[in-house]
């Protein structure tokens, strides 16, 4: 025979339980209706370049060369030393297989009398203002074709090694 007395729940306990449930419900509703948090800054936030443009024959600085970054729609000019101001790079979408911890952009360079130059996948590390790349433009009169020079920059070596190792069969 069971001799235990049945427990009686006091009104105070019921009130506390109901209050706790209402608080949890209110927090849940507030969380669902709160605006989404600001996006997390890219791993490559703050990456920038200072591009140097030189004559490919004389090695002299080229003043007034126009640098276009298609990803941003902005253009810049070189100064008397052939240098641009720091150019902020847009963040990069990461490859599904391995995060790209840098920013990159295409760089198009124009100067009257010179063959245009296209440099793809130029990259810089987060928080870095990279001094370079150094680009050599060639006078139109010194080449047989006026088609743009096209160069592709590879990603950082450590990243390449990691990608190759990660995907090794």
Supply the key terms.
alpha/beta, 169 residues, single chain, 8 strands, elongated, Immunoglobulin-like
Describe this structure in words.
The chain has 169 residues and is of the alpha/beta class. It has one domain: Carboxypeptidase-like, regulatory domain (Immunoglobulin-like, Sandwich), CATH 2.60.40.1120. The protein is built from 2 helices and 8 strands; from the N terminus they run αββββββββα. The strands form 2 sheets. Strands 3-2-5-6-8 form a 5-stranded mixed sheet, with no helix packed on it. Strands 4-1-7 form a 3-stranded mixed sheet, with no helix packed on it. Strand 5 and strand 6 (117-124) form a beta hairpin. The longest helix has 23 residues, at 11-33. The model is unreliable at 17-44 (pLDDT under 50).
Along the chain, the helix and strand elements come as HEEEEEEEEH
Q: How many independent structural domains?
A: 1
- Predict the CATH topology: Immunoglobulin-like
Question: What is the overall number of helices?
Answer: 2
Helix content: 10-25%
Which runs of at least 5 residues are low in confidence (pLDDT < 50)?
17-44
Proportion of strand residues: 25-35%
Which structural class should the secondary elements be placed in?
Answer: alpha/beta
Q: Any idea what the radius of gyration is?
A: 30 Å
Please tell me what the overall shape is: elongated
- Average pLDDT, rounded to a whole number, is 78
Biggest sheet character: 5 strands, mixed
- At the first level of CATH, the class is Mainly Beta
The CATH architecture is Sandwich
CATH homologous superfamily classification = Carboxypeptidase-like, regulatory domain
């Amino acid at each position: 025979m069971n001799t235990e007395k049945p427990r009686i729940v006091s009104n105070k306990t019921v009130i506390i339980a109901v209050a706790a449930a209402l608080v949890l419900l209110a927090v849940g509703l507030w969380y669902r209706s709160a605006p989404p948090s600001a996006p997390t800054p890219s791993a490559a936030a703050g990456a920038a370049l200072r591009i140097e443009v030189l004559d490919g024959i004389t090695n002299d600085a080229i003043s007034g060369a126009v640098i276009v970054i298609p990803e941003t729609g902005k253009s810049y000019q070189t100064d008397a030393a052939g240098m641009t101001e720091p150019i902020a790079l847009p963040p990069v979408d990461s490859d599904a297989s391995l995060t790209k911890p840098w920013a990159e952009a295409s760089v198009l360079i124009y100067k009257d009398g010179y063959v245009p130059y296209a440099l793809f996948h130029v990259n810089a590390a987060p928080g870095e203002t990279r001094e370079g790349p150094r680009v050599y433009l060639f006078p139109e009169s010194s080449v047989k074709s006026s088609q743009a020079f096209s160069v592709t920059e590879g990603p950082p070596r450590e990243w390449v090694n990691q990608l190759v190792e990660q995907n090794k069969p």
